Every structure is written in C-alpha cells, then in structure tokens.
Amino acid sequence: MDKHFFETLLQKHQQAGTFPSTSAICKLVTRILLVLFPEQTQSKYKDVADVEIQMGVYQKELTRLLLSIQNDLPAAANELSAAFMNELPVVYEKLLLDIQATLNGDPAARSEFEVVRAYPGFYAIAFYRLANVLYLQNVPLIPRIIMEYTHSKTGIDIHPGATIGKNFHIDHGTGIVIGETANIGDNVKIYQGVTLGALSVSKNKANTKRHPTIEDNVIIYSGATILGGETIVGHSSIIGGNVWLTESVPPFTRVYHKAQIEVSTKKV
To answer: Model's pTM, two decimal places?
Structure first.
C-alpha cells in the first residue's frame, strides 16, 4: 500500500487526542439511569448509604471522563460533574411525570414498571433529559454521543439541545426527529414518524432558531412534518397524520391532510 496512506492514518491517530470512548460515555449514563429506575436491573441497594456511595462512584467516573477534555470545558471537570449529579433529583421528577403522561395517554400501558421496561419512548426521553443537562452546561459532543446512541437503540432522534416541557409522551416513537432548537411545551403527545425540523440546513443558520415551537397540550399524529424556527403550533391544537406544516397555527386548531383515495371493485 501507499506509504503516504499509513502516514495519513498515523497523523489522524496522533491528532485524535484522548476524548472518551462512546462505550464509556453510554455505559456511565446507562448505569446512572439504572439507579434512578431499578426496574431495568436486578441490582438492589440495602440502604440510603449504599445508594449515596454508588452515585459518588459515578460522579467520580464522570469527572474522569470530563478531565480528558478539560481544555474544552467551560469550568473544572469536578465542578461540572457535581452540578450534573445535583440536577438528578430534578430530572427524576420530570421523568416520573413523563411516565405518568404515558400511563394517561396510552390505553395499552398498564403500569409504571411496564413503561420503564418496555417503552422505547421513555428510554429516549430519559436519555434526552440526562444529555440535556450536559448540553446546558456547554459540555462539548458528549450530549450528542448520548443521543446518537439512544437513536440507534430506539429509532428516535432527539437533539440534546431541544427544549421539552413536562408530561411529554412519545407513542410508538420510531422515526421521530426533534431538532436542536425545537421548543416543546407541557402535556405534548407525539406519534411515530413526526419531524420537528428546519426549513433550511444552511450553515449560516446554525446560531438561529431553526425548528418549530409546539405549545402546551398539543397532539401530533404519525407522519406529520412541522418545519421552521418561526412556526408555532398554538396550544391545545391537533396536527393530523402526514400533515406538512411550515406556517404557524393559532391555539385550538385542527390541521388534517386530506388524501384522495379511490377504491374500485372489478367483477370477475
């Protein structure tokens, strides 16, 4: 082979630095989630001290991962990891509300245990809420890695920078895309195949609001596409399946896509 090819590879390896592996990042976040929701594991703690010790171990592990990119962080790694752990009670309360939203919104959901164990929508929301904490701390890349791992597991693509309110319910979930600057209010329900995207993918739009705002108490049915940073779906609206929406609609609006279907019968 061409020696220049090997030299190029060597140079890339030398420039790669010590950024933590995807595996290490995702394993840590998964373990933290398993402490919050032991429905997913056989591990049980006997007292509060045990839980505190384990969370302390995970805080040290997060600090270690962040230290490898300390030069790119906005604050000391130990300060950021401590702040992340301090946000876990808030994240936990939000996730309990998300679970309840699923129980209230899906007749097939019979228990909290079932939602935690069997609903990819909950899995995606849980990882999003953890990744969003790191995103808001301006930790580079790690939140994106967490959500791309989640995307690979669930088929649900949520950017960690999106803003999502309380009582969020994803039904089925496969194929959902929620962009970085999307803003979703409280009590919103989204079905499979929904896209909250941008009208333009031009790089000069990177620092602008590119994705829609979904106000409180909105339902968006499967296959709907809502685009644009200036697009606002008013509260208490219903967006029907396969709708293509690039302009704002007021509260209490119902938007439906009407397809013309012809059925013919031929007698033999």
So the answer is: 0.91
Q: Output Rg (C-alpha) for the chain, integer angstroms.
A: 22
DSSP secondary structure string for all residues of the chain: --HHHHHHHHHHHHHSTTPPPHHHHHHHHHHHHHHH-GGG-S---SSHHHHHHHHHHHHHHHHHHHHTTGGGSSS-HHHHHHHHHHTHHHHHHHHHHHHHHHHHH-TT---HHHHHHH-HHHHHHHHHHHHHHHHHTT--SHHHHHHHHHHHHHS-EE-TT-EE-SS-EEES-TT-EE-TT-EE-SS-EEETT-EEE-S---GGGTTS--S-EE-TT-EE-TT-EEE-TT-EE-TT-EE-TT-EE-S-B-TT-EE-------------
Topology, domain 18-154: serine acetyltransferase, domain 1 (1.10.3130)
CATH architecture of the domain 162-268 equals 3 Solenoid (2.160)
Q: What is the pLDDT of residues 70-117, one digit of tens each?
A: 999 999 999 999 999 999 999 999 999 999 999 999 999 999 999 999
* DSSP collapsed to 3 states, 36-78: HCHHHCCCCCCCHHHHHHHHHHHHHHHHHHHHCCHHHCCCCHH
Q: Which two tokens stand for residue 241?
A: 């399946």
Write out pLDDT tens, residues 232-260: 999 999 999 999 999 999 999 999 988 77
